[in-house]
From TrEMBL:
GO molecular function, one term: hydrolase activity, acting on glycosyl bonds
Protein name per the record: Pseudouridine-5'-phosphate glycosidase
InterPro entries linked: Indigdn_synthA-like, PsuG
HAMAP family named among the record's database cross-references: PsiMP_glycosidase
Alphabetized UniProt keyword annotations: Glycosidase, Hydrolase, Lyase, Manganese, Metal-binding
A single Gene Ontology CC term: cytoplasm
Signal peptide coordinates: none
Pfam families: Indigoidine_A
């Protein structure tokens, strides 16, 4: 017999169905969450988001595919589920399978570099988009992934005070509650102004086991960081506090280059200076500037490309730490 006042147990059941329905992974029919990622999220298991511009624009095939697979493996080895994010045929995909990863890696720069501003266009025109930090954060937050690992993030460009070329990665950090683990910001950018801008955006910038903000290839940038975190658990507590307070902004966790690499990292500075001069001479601007500078630094540092070797070493190191943070956070939220 139908009852107008359901028993409390069926109400609880309805409530749990409802909360299932509201589960962030199901909340947007326009995105496709892989079965593995979706299961992990609904069971409260640690998940780590990964960007895809680093695959399409960061290095050539097949090195990009190898690196992407290795980074995913490192995340798994450290106890979390990787979710590489990209837009394929206009569908935002959260968690790529091997076939999709290979497709994107082969596409390379044919895939559109997709920041937040580009998402609607790439989706509407059913294009393939490789997501930058800003777009990856947007999708990670949409499905409820709290931790995201990358190599370096975008920032305020040199002369940004005149050109207003400021990466949307920074404004995304100001508006989206995802923790981004990176090796800091490359000195192709204006690091002090990048940190000023992050402060304006209300972003908590933390340095991992150091008091200095790292400059990707080098441990130091000359800029001090007020927030120092010394373990994955400390990082997790900070992320948890940021979430519980509903601050709404992201957190940047900057992990310095390992000592064994940092001497070679210093050698890259002159290549950066040369790349910057060339970009100015060739009048390279807009969203082409970052890929141009990164590619030139790789070329100038030689056949074996010191810069690209370090790029890969750093993203792998970040992946291990990011996965540990994600595991510690899942533990806290249990
Ligand atoms: N910096 C790096 N490696 C990268 C990028 C930046 O050291 O791969 C990529 C990231 O995808 C980042 C994007 O989100 O470039 C920023 O581009 P722009 O400066 O156009 O916002
Ligand atoms: Mn820009």
């Amino acid at each position: 017999m139908a009852s107008s006042s359901p028993s409390s147990s069926s109400a609880v059941k309805r409530l749990s169905n409802l909360s299932n329905h509201l589960c962030p992974t199901n909340s947007n029919p326009f995105v496709k969450v892989s079965a593995q990622v979706s299961q992990a999220l609904t069971s409260g298991l640690p998940v780590v988001a990964l960007e895809s511009t680093i695959i399409s624009h960061g290095m050539p095939y097949p090195q990009n595919l190898e690196t992407a697979k290795e980074v995913e493996a490192i995340v798994r080895d450290n106890g979390a589920v990787p979710a590489t994010i990209a837009i394929l045929d206009g569908v935002p995909c959260i968690g790529l399978n091997l076939e999709q990863l290979e497709r994107l890696a082969r596409m390379g720069k044919i895939a559109q570099k997709t920041a937040r501003r580009d998402i609607a266009y790439v989706v509407a025109t059913k294009r393939n988009g490789a997501t930058t930090v800003s777009a990856t954060m947007f999708f990670a937050a949409m499905v409820g992934i709290p931790v995201f690992v990358t190599g370096g993030i975008g920032g305020v460009h040199r002369h940004g005070e005149h050109t207003m070329d400021i990466s949307s990665d920074l404004t995304e950090l100001g508006r989206t509650p995802v923790a981004v683990v990176s090796a800091g910001v490359k000195s192709i950018l204006d690091i002090p102004r990048t940190l000023e801008y992050l402060e304006t955006q209300g972003v908590c910038v933390a340095a991992y086991k150091t008091n200095e903000f790292p400059a990707f290839f080098t441990e130091t940038s000359g800029c001090k960081v007020l927030c120092r975190l010394d373990s994955p658990e400390e990082c997790a507590r900070l992320i948890d506090a940021n979430r519980k307070l509903n601050l709404g902004n992201g957190v940047l966790i900057a992990v310095p280059i390992a000592k064994e690499y940092s001497a070679s990292g210093s050698l890259i500075e002159s290549a950066i200076q040369q790349a910057l001069t060339e970009a100015r001479e060739k009048n390279i601007t807009g969203n082409a500037e970052t890929p141009f500078l990164l590619a030139r630094v790789n070329e100038i540092t030689g056949g074996a490309s010191l810069a690209s070797t370090l790029d890969i070493a750093l993203v792998k190191n970040n992946a291990a730490i990011g996965a540990k943070i994600s595991v510690a956070l899942a533990q806290l939220l249990k």
